[in-house]
Every structure is written in C-alpha cells, then in structure tokens.
Dipeptidyl peptidase 3 (Aspergillus nanangensis), 688 residues
Amino acid sequence: MTQPQIYQLSVGSVFDGLTTHQKLYAHYMARAAWSGTRIILQQVSPEANGIFDFILALYQLCDGQWERLAIESGVEMDEVEKFLDYAAIFLSNVGNYFGSGDQKFLPGIPQESLEKLVSGSAGVTALLDKIKMLDKIKTPMFQELPNSLGPHGEFTQTTYYLGDDCLESAEHIAAISQLMEGVGILPENTRLRKRNSGYDIVQASVVTDASICEETAATSGKAIHLVRGDYQRELNQINGYLQQAMKFTANPVQKQMLEQIEESFQTGDLSTYKASQRTWVGDKAPPVETVIGFVEPYRDPLGVRGEFEGNVGIPDPDETRILNNLASRANEFVCRLPWVDADSGTKGPFEKELFEPPDFSSVHSLAYCSSIIFPGINLPNYNDIRQDTGYKNIIFSNRMVAESSRARGIHMVDESERPTFKKHRFHSYYIWVVLHEILGHGTGRFLTESTPGNFNFDPETPPINPLSGKPIKTWYRPGQTWTGVFEDLSTTVDECRAELVGAYLIDEPEILKLFGYTEEGDIKWEDLVYNMYLQLGVDGLRGLENYNPTTQKWGQAHSRAHYAMLRHLLRDSNGLYSIICDPIEMKLAVKVDRSRVIQDGKPSLGRMLLQLHIYRCTADKTSCRQLYEDLSYVDSDALKWREIVISKKDPPLAFCHANTYVDQGDVKLKEYEPTARGIIQSWAERHV
C-alpha cells in the first residue's frame, strides 16, 4: 500500500474567535456529525464496522505505543507502519473502499504478521475473542474481491441493496420507485431488501415498525413493505446531540432547522428533512455552519440513495468576503453562459430570470464525517428547493490547503512546462471550484409539470430547443426529480455540467479581478487561463484511475466527468489537444496549443455545456445517455493511457481532524499531528 499524504485540518485560529455559546454549538454539532460514522461504515461494506473496531481496539491495547506492541509481538516495525498507513487511510475514507473511486484497498502488512501482532501481546487474545473481531474481518479485509462498489457481483458489492439478486429485475425496481413516488417516500434515506415474499423499503429512523405499502402486479404481486428503524441506534445518538446543540443555537431559524432534522431522523419522513433544508438556506451567514443528513447519492448504483454525512465549519471572514463579492455579481456572470441571450433582455426559458445571490462562505472544517472530504459543496441537492428557495455554497479552506501543495498528475505535463504548471495550478483550481459551486450547481431552470396540468412553461407553445431548433418534447412530469429521471447518470452529468461552467467562465477578466489577479500581478491572467485548459487534459487522464476495466464501470462521478470533457475536447476543438503516449517507456503527456485556447477551447466547452444543460433542463434522459456514454467510453487507446496513469498514481490523501471537549462549561480544542498515528489517536479519542 502506498504511504498516504496526510494533512492536518487546522481550525484553531478561527475556533478561538468564537464565543463560548458558539463553541458549545459547534461542539455538539460536531459530536452529532461524528456519531454518523457507523452509518457510513454500514453503507460501505459488511466488514467495515468490524475493521473500524479492530483498529481502535489495537490502539487501546497498546495505548498508542505501537513500538511497544511491535516488540511484544515480534513483528517488524516497518510492517506495523504499513498497518498504521492502512488504518489512517481507512479512517480518513470511513471504510475500506476509497471515497473517491470506490475501489478497495488492502493492508500492506501480511495477514500472518497481523495475526501475530494480535496474539503476541498479553491480554490481547482475550479481548479479541470476546468481540470476535479478527476472525470476522480478516478474510474480507485481505481478499482482493470484490474490488469495487456496485451492483452485487463477483467484482462488486453494495449494501444499499440487500440480497444478491435484489437488483436483478429492473422492472421490479422501476415499479418500486414509482410506488415510492406515488406515496411520497423519498429514496435518500432508504435501502432496498429483497425477500421471498416481496421487498422491504428499509428506512432510516429511530422509530421502528413495518407496514404494507402495496402489492403490485408490476412486481409479480409481491408485497412491498416500508420497514422503519434502519440505523436506529446511531440516529438516536445523533438526535441526543442535536437536542444539546439546540440550547446554543444562534437564532430561532437555526433552532427550527435542528428541530426539523431531529424529527426527520426520528420518523424517517424526508419531507420534514426537506423542510429543514429550506430553513437552512434561510439561515444566512451563521457563525457556525453545519450540514447533516443523507446527502450525496454517489455510491448508490442507481444514483438516488444518499450516503450519510455530517460537517461543521467555522467561517473565515476575510475569505468569505471575497466569495460574497462574487455572489453579489453572479447574476451578471450568468448572462455569459451559452443558453442565455443577454441581448434579448431576458435569460430565456432555460435559466431562472433572477439569480438570487446565495449564501457563500469559506469555512475551516472542524468536523467532516464523510467518505469524501470535498474542497467545496453546493447544497441542498433537492432541485425544487434550489429553484424556489435557494441554496448555499461552502468552500472548505483548510481542505483546500492540501491542493495548494500538490501538483497532481504533473508527470503528464511536458517537463518544460512543469514549473509554470506547479505555480499556477492551485490558483486556477481554486477559482474553478468556486465557479463550479456557485454557477455550476446553482444555474438552470427545470421545465416542469408540477401537478397534472400545472406547468412552469406554456405547453401550447413550448420553448424552442436550441439544439434542434424545434419545440421541446420532454419535461419533468408530476413527482419526477432530476435523480429519479436520470438515475445512474444524474450525479456524474451534474458534476460534469458544473465543471464545464467553471472552466468556461474562468477567462472572464472581471472574475479574475475579484480574486485579486491582474495583469500587474505575479500570476498572469493568460498563464492562469492556459493552466486551466492544461489541467482539463491532465484531470481527464487522471480520471481513468477510477475506471474499472473488468466491470467497465466508473467509480467516481467527477472522474468520469473529467474524462468525458477531455474526450469531447479531443474531438471537437480543432486539434487544440493532443495526447503523447509511449507505452514502452511508460510515459504519457497532454499538450495544448496555447495560442488557440480561447479561440477553439472555450467554444468547444460551450457546445458540450449547452448540450448537457438542455438535456438536464428538459428531462431528456435518452439524448443525454447517448451523448454521455459515448464520451465516457474507454477505448483501447484509453486503456493504454490508464495503465500508465495507474503506474504513476498519486499517493492517497488522508486528513487529520481536531476534537473538542467540554471542560467545566468551556470547550477545549485538541489538534493532532498530521501522521498516521495522529489520525488513529484522533479517532480513538472521538469515542464513536
């Protein structure tokens, strides 16, 4: 196993600026976030909870004195270090599959050495026998297959669909989805379990019960039950911390939000959770920002069920001020997107007429309990809330620090350009992420029939589709959602569209000025913009890391998006890009004609962006699938590229979070060294 690059998510400077009241709110919300750890572990793999317990049990047995454990058990210290690296990666990904890519990783230590490490220390065997840890986990912990997440099979597994044949009948799954839509059961906090007599829709809640939903001919007359009580113990604990946090909210809006979240976790009713998200959007510029719930559907093979996550961030006033300056002018920049005719005096049918400036904050992450720690997020994921109420953007600045010291994929840049690439990569990456969140995820207007006969457009004279020049033929029908219609494509197409928006707008001088980049500065506009297009090529190749040639499936939405963008640019930008591949020397490079970046690169991005946007706004899944599956197809040349990419893969990232404690009414912060030992200690002292 490759040694991880470990970063400390330092938060002390902004945490000290909070009042005692605010610190207590942050503390209890962080405890609520971390209490979701075991939900995530259960969502990852059957063995993940046991591996988690095993790692922490070993820590407790030696009190973090790993050298002592090595000596007592007779295991070489370099093998112990490999186990510590595995443990750090496991804890940072909250499971034994990478959060980014969904690929399994194995311990670097031999199984025999791990068994020796366990059995060679006094008192260890009795403890492990008591909870039967090692015997339960050693086989799945070390075996290579299944090597990725996905529908049940030889090479893949999922815990969202229980029973090996749960997903075998597409007709049954479609019928259950339609039934759920009809009775108002949202899918994000559910799993599906197949039984001989039918199916269970297993819903996360503190309340436990079961009730019949329907017996339907579409599922061969099998009974469909709603079974509440999934993750009962964890959600009950989370609710306890939410109740504590309510005593220290900053305003009535925040308290109402927590009450709604608590009720949703109690009952499993996601309509209450959606109400909490509307309330959350209205909690403007809070001194402590929080997100908690079943949020991102990346890991569901069908793209609709959400993985749990919880995060707590403390805003940085200076950084947030810059982002809000951008947000205040966002309506102006929307007019420069390909589907908006700025000269007509209206934004047209495919964009909201008024782009309300969202709450946009740059925060330092105090707690980020998730399989992926994103540099930025745009929430909520419910598009009706985005369009009717609004949304929030959050940049995690202490997570961004990791990107500032890395030049991922630099071996794919010509040696003569590497110094410039390293110098400019983070600057263009930061702006790209910011634009991705605010204008990528924040733009667009879904054409919808919300209830029978109630349209947000005139069905008698439908809008003209700019791709065909003819009236639109598809739209969202009553009860339909973006994820429900586009299913497995929804997350990757959404990310691709957002990435395209960020790259398309990055050459706008007014945007660059907002971030302090001028022609007189050390970072030149033209260098920054050129680096963005070079980065599109590098990231497109890097995306192949997360493609599984055995299953022919992509393991990460952003990776598939980056590859699809590169494939489009290779086909559509008049030779702007070229890939140099030497399989003998195992060298791979991407080249961009600097003189034609704006002339040919931007129009090409605009054409792809327009297609995805119109398909998304009009619920045209068929056309979208045809385009996107073609662009993300990995042919024989790309498989050769992938071999080189994999051989020079960047080390995995791991992050070390702080902990908070209440001491005589005051909240203390403890930060840990950015090492494998520090990560393990932080988790052991989190007591989850």
Summary: The longest helix spans residues 418-440. The longest strand covers residues 359-369. The mean pLDDT is 93. Residues 408-647 form one domain.
